[in-house]
Amino acid sequence: MSAAGIEAVVIGGSAGGVDALAVMLPALPAALPVPVIVVLHLPREKPSLLVEIFSRQCALPVQEAQDKAPIEPGNVYFAPADYHLLVDHGPSFALSVDEPVHYSRPSIDVLFETAADVYAEHLLAVVLTGASQDGAAGLAAVHRAGGTTVVQEPQEALSPYMPESALRTSPVDHVLPLAGIAQLIGGLAANRT
């Protein structure tokens, strides 16, 4: 299960995603040499509390992604509520208020597709629990670009629809429980000498 050569991790989730991330993100080591960029479907009308929640639990610094900000290794970034989060060459972030995709803004597909354009085979993308098909097309784009694709074990997911959609849409490199996904991402620290 080699993840050598990975330069960024993107994660998408919806229903049950906060609980899934509460298993994965605190398990990641402080020495992680790549950025972890997360889109969770959130209510648009409320500010996101994800940074507050996860800052206390994680060894890595946690922040909300800012428009035009450079993407730094060893950080966890969350998409702000009601904005699409895109990866630009640099690499840096871009925020957009384009139409929702699969009724969602931020959209997992938008993050995954733009990250695949920038990182290509150096990207690891993870689809977690969720009740929509957002993420399936994005994961397929990562696969086409040569990146590593991971889907949460549907039987373990609070809402299996999103992982199942991803599995139906494209070949996937790994289908793992949350602990296995955390181990795979955490192993990136060990792969750097």
Automatic annotation (TrEMBL):
Entry-linked CDD domains: CheB (cd16433)
Pfam families: CheB_methylest
Transmembrane segments: 20-40
EC class: hydrolase
Catalytic residues as annotated in Swiss-Prot or TrEMBL: 14, 41, 134
Catalytic activity: [protein]-L-glutamate 5-O-methyl ester + H2O = L-glutamyl-[protein] + methanol + H(+)
EC number(s) on file: 3.1.1.61
Gene3D superfamilies: Methylesterase CheB, C-terminal domain
Coiled-coil residue windows: none
Every CheB-type methylesterase domain range: 2-185
Keywords annotated in UniProt: Chemotaxis, Hydrolase, Membrane, Transmembrane, Transmembrane helix
Keyword Transmembrane assigned: yes
SUPFAM superfamilies: Methylesterase CheB, C-terminal domain (SSF52738)
PROSITE patterns the record matches: CHEB
Name of this protein: protein-glutamate methylesterase
Organism encoding this protein: Piscinibacter gummiphilus
